[in-house]
Amino acid sequence: MDLEKLKERVLTLVPEAEFEENKQFLTFFLPAGKLHATALRLKEDTDTAFDYLFCQSGTDMVKYLMVVYHLESTSLGHSLVMKVKTEDRETPAFDTVCDIWRTAEFHEREIYDLLGIRFTNHPDLRRIFLDENWAGHPLRKDYQDEVNIVEF
Amino acid sequence: MKEVIHTPVPSVEEEEYHINMGPQHPSTHGVLRLVVSLQGEIVKNLKPHCGYIHRGMEKMCEKDTYPQIIHLTDRMDYLSAHINNHAVCLLVENALQIEVPERVKYIRTIMDELCRIQSHQLWWASFGMDLGGLTCFFYGLRDREKILDIWEETTGARFLQSYYTPGGLMWDIHPDFQKNVKAFIKYFRKKIRDYEKILSGNVIFTERSRNIGLMTKEEAISYGVTGPSGRGSGWSCDIRKHHPYALYDKVEFKEILYHEGDTLARYMVRMDEMYESMHIIEQLIDNIPEGDFSAKMKAVIKLPAGEYYQRVESARGDLGIYCISDGNKTPYRMKFRTPSFSNLSVLDHISRDLKIADLVAIGGSLDLVIPDIDR
């Protein structure tokens, strides 16, 4: 499916989608509440068929925390980027997508570990790299570690 | 006489118990711990514990310039060092729209394929050893030395080369490079027949690997199992074919696919890929054009503000780098989507209800490199 059609298709699923211009992939923000339902439709519908989540990452943009989903369809060859954001820095949470793409189970554990974003309904949300009693989440921009991070 | 009441003690077969494989265990090939729940010798489930070699690479990248980041990526999947370097270089070059000289593309493609061969050689060596064939380890390492020698001449390093730079290469190839690579291919085409004789045609080996660790194509896609492990399940996921970079759209090579989805299929994919890699090198080695070994680059590299994503096919699969730049000389955020991380996630699913000895075979067939998981 070409980009314009894909864009229309996304807009019929989520009319609130905010598209970003001049990106490598078709990129849009969607409301966090619609994340799971949209993700499921994007995978299940035969004309979109996004069955491969090739990257899931979290970023601290200071004003907000965001999670980015890079999706590709292995049968149709098109890809898109879906983003959700939250301004809540204390208890940020999104719905899990690991029931849709199993690879998300590990990626979401990593995002939780390094950015402190929780994923509701995740079957096993524990830290993946750091100790359970580690204080803070290192990829947050306000994270401080006077022992391991040397400021120049 | 007082009656003695025996509480029934569950037999070993009934009781579920846990053992730790690792962090120091020969079959995990690094510091990975698998907490395995067993009933007798049947694996009920397993939980991988990662992070023993987590170095916070993504956090470090936020303080490093792009040429510095190249040196970090060597240390992720150290068996695909050149290919990891290639990913960062392509990211920077595509963001700045720099066209690298043809000579660089040739050398990079040859180096990448040498990298793939030596990675598969080491995988073959350790996989054979995991299943009890110690000879494999000696054969594999013996032949891998030849590639390391070739690299040492040109790059000055045997393991972590950091040979690529944004825009080109650190320096030109050694005058003997072409001669030595051709000699190696000639040598290895003979020796790989021994590999086939020792393992591929070995009844004990095929019996231990056939129908073990079955993974369907749908599972491979859902778990994001890429590279030779995904192609063993019939999923055409080769980035070199689907999103070509360097010279992969110019050279002729086959994407190896097997559809059985078992340990033997994943083994066969890697064996066949070594032939394809040699085939690619043979097409290029005599035709390296004259020219510069690097494009002109500014002393300080700053990417325009924006988001970039670069994918390459490492020896383990789909390596992705997602970079958010705010226009400075260091990235705002750098995310490495490493193939071993996703490949590990399927291990629990495909080794359930099999024997613990099969777990070793499956783990070997996924070809995990632990620093690539932990970063």
Our estimate of the beta-strand percent of chain B is 5-15%
Strand order of the largest sheet of chain A: 1-2-5-4-3
Largest sheet of chain A: 5 strands, mixed
Q: Please give the radius of gyration of chain A in angstroms.
A: 16 Å
The coarse overall form of chain A would be: globular
Count every beta strand of chain A, where a strand is a DSSP E run of 2 or more residues.
Answer: 7
The N- and C-terminal alpha carbons of chain A lie at a distance of 49 Å
How much helix is in the residues of chain A? 10-25%
Looking at the overall shape, the CATH architecture of chain B is Orthogonal Bundle
- Uncertain segments of chain A: none
- CATH H-level superfamily title of chain B: Cytochrome-c3 Hydrogenase, chain B
One letter per element, helices H and strands E, the order of chain B comes to EEEEEHHHHHEEHHHHHHEEEHHHH
| CATH evolutionary superfamily of the domain at 3-88 in chain A | NADH:ubiquinone oxidoreductase Nqo5 subunit
The CATH topology label of the domain at 3-88 in chain A is Beta Polymerase, domain 2
Q: What attributes characterize this protein structure?
A:
heterodimer, A: 152 residues, alpha/beta, Beta Polymerase, domain 2, 5-stranded mixed β-sheet, 3 helices, B: 375 residues, alpha+beta, Cytochrome-c3 Hydrogenase, chain B, 3-stranded antiparallel β-sheet
Outline the structure in words.
The complex is a heterodimer of chains A (152) and B (375). The longest helix of chain A is centred in the C-terminal third of the chain and has 12 residues, at 104-115. Chain A has a domain at 3-88: 2-Layer Sandwich (Beta Polymerase, domain 2). Chain A is built from 3 helices and 7 strands. Chain A has helices at residues 3-13, 35-44, 104-115; strands at residues 18-20, 26-29, 52-60, 65-72, 79-86, 93-95, 118-120. Chain B has one domain (16-374): Cytochrome-c3 Hydrogenase, chain B (Orthogonal Bundle). A 3-stranded antiparallel beta sheet of chain B has the order 1-4-5. In chain B, α4 (102-130) packs antiparallel against α11 (263-285) and α5 packs antiparallel against α6 (177-200). The termini of chain B are far apart. The model of chain B has no long low-confidence stretch (mean pLDDT 88). Classes of the chains: A alpha/beta (152), B alpha+beta (375). Chain A binds chain B through residues 22-25, 27, 51-55, 57, 59-60, 68, 70, 74, 77, 101-103, 105-107, 110, 114, 127-130, 138-139, 148-149, and chain B through 50-51, 54, 56, 58-59, 218-219, 221-224, 235-237, 242, 306-309, 311, 318, 320, 322, 324, 332-333, 335, 337, 341-342, 344-346, 349, 374.
